[in-house]
Structure formats: structure tokens, C-alpha cells
Amino acid sequence: MIKLIHDLWRKNRNLISDDYDQSLEYISKLIPLKIHKIPSGTKCWTWTIPEKWSVKEAWIKDLDGNIILDFKDNPLHVMSYSLPINKIVSKEELIKHIHTRADRPNSIPYEFKFYERDWGLCIEHNKLNNLDKISIGF
Fold it and tell me: What's the predicted TM-score (pTM) here?
């Protein structure tokens, strides 16, 4: 069980993603699974299956190139289904697109926007003060 957790916990296991498919394949080698594939856009009861979404890299850097946030450290840093962005933004603009939990200042929240076209990042609330003029890329 520890090996399973170690092998899968850092994968970006969004519902429709390469890492999710790889995780199911991994688990299917340990226990019998029947995996059903349903195309994106299909209506399922009260829900529509979202588009496939994958992230290769994402980061926030200060203008000196120091990395403040890195997707490689934790897949929760990128809001699920975020649009890509690659530009320098002010702290004010970043704050409009960043998600934190003041009640859990050392935790990275899980946020998603399956159907909204916007970008977003998630970071520990106690790291907000480290953000000045920064560069974002993903």
C-alpha cells in the first residue's frame, strides 16, 4: 500500500488526464478493474464529462528568476482545468487568480473550473506575502 501511495500521490489525477489514465492502469495491475471510457462532452445524469486536461509544467517566479511556486513540487499548485498563461503580472492581478485557505494557512487548496475559461493557481496562504511583481508560466 505504501508503494502505491508513493507511486501515485504526486500525479496530476484530474478526471480526464493522462495521469488519471496512468493511475487507473497502475491500479488495474494490482486489482481487477473494468475501465469504461466515456468521451468528453457526454451528458451523464446531471453532469457533462469535461475535456481532457494535462499540465507539463507551471511556475511562479520573481523577476530575479527565483521560483516561488512549482507544479513539480505539488500538482495542487495549478487549479484544475486552468487555461495556460505565460507573462509578467502584478501582485494585484495575481491575487485575482490565486486561491488560498486562510483557515489552513499551510495547506494548498484544491480548486477546479471544469467549464469556466480562466487561469488560476493555488498556494499556501502564508506565502501570499512573498509575491511582488512576478512571472507566471504554464
Answer: 0.80
